[in-house]
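Dear V.,

Thank you for sending over the compound details. I've combined the ligand you provided, nicotinamide-adenine-dinucleotide, with the protein sequence from our construct and run the structure prediction for the complex. I'm sharing the raw inputs here so there's no ambiguity about protonation or stereochemistry in the SMILES, which I know was a concern on your side last time.
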Amino acid sequence: MFLFPELEITEKKLRAVLVGCGEQATCLMHDAISYNGEIEVVGVCDMNKDRADFAAKRFGLDRSWQDLDEMLAKVEADAAFVIMVPKLAPILAKKCVEAGLHVYTEKPLGTELADIYALGEALEKTGKKLGVSFNKRFGLAYSGMKNAIDSDIFGKPGVFNARFIGGYRSSPTDLLRVGSCHFFDLARYMIGEIDEIFAYKFEQAPGQHIFSATAQFENGCVGSFTMGSTGSWACGYGMEAVEVRGDRNMVSADNGRDFMWQKPSRIMNLYKDGASAQNTQAVAEEAVPVEILRNNYSNPGKVTESTFFINGNFQAIRAFVKAILNGEEPPVGYNDGLMALKIALAIEKSVAEKRAVKISEIV
Ligand SMILES: NC(=O)c1ccc[n+]([C@@H]2O[C@H](COP(=O)([O-])OP(=O)(O)OC[C@H]3O[C@@H](n4cnc5c(N)ncnc54)[C@H](O)[C@@H]3O)[C@@H](O)[C@H]2O)c1
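Below is the predicted structure of the protein with nicotinamide-adenine-dinucleotide bound, written out as structure tokens.
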């Protein structure tokens, strides 16, 4: 049945339980889940009863659960959405997998390698599938960047730069392993695996840090990450920016939204000897206009202008659900979550040991 092009209603339903009804769940993920016609929410759980009850009411359930083990024992489901404090997320995700459920978990997949490896063993043993919410991959600006990078005219990417300076973080570990993991994932998504990293750290205010890291990718591309917690969560400019440069052109996204693509200039071969004239600074070029995509902030009533769509949460969930219903691997999963943590750990190790660290050293 046709609703809007982006939305669909089907008979095929994934019965899902929601684990964790905190801020990210209540204010964003539950919206994205409720717009997905293939998900039927059959249980909600949070140790905070008020939050869980609010979610239960929202999804038309007559009760909520405060204990995950009890919900898993009593409720028949196919999948769990784990939107939990990061330290606990892989531990509760493992419980869900062992109870026979596929899992979609908020980023980060975990903050300790041991917890992620334990979850990996459970996935292997049960054959269940896991999706990780690296929603930025699906967001309009970053997916636009990826399309540009993959296009014929972009050429080989030469440099990847990411800056993310948000507000308060409880620790430098929280900043790197939890907050910054989106950008480590975007680096892998847009360019490929990182080979080596060298990083510095500055404690600009008590407990609040800025990390500056340079990286070499396996394909030779170079890059940098500036990740800090001395900014603000409320500023409209200057918080997050990603830029990739190809062959005489570049693509960028500001604050995860404003997308810009400066395509290559047109070379005017005015010289008699043609091609060789391109190898001089005196080559005549004609500018090509910049392509810009800016969201329409005054029209949030349109699905595609809603936060959960601009940021990619809706599309990320849809991709996971479709993969599960079709018996396929989710497009973003276990290895992506693991590699994002490894990059954070390589930065920590580089700062501690004052040397370049290979990602392969992080095991
Ligand atoms: N994709 C993104 O850009 C993005 C943005 C923000 C947050 N997140 C992620 O979302 C996750 C949740 O963040 P949040 O801000 O909503 O945190 P939060 O603290 O508001 O929510 C966590 C919830 O888990 C509940 N909880 C804790 N232990 C529990 C247990 N043992 N059993 C049941 N419930 C328990 C808490 O009561 C709380 O309601 C984090 O992993 C965070 O990294 C992702």
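A first observation: Residues 2-128 form a domain with the Rossmann fold fold (CATH 3.40.50.720).

Warm regards,
I. M.
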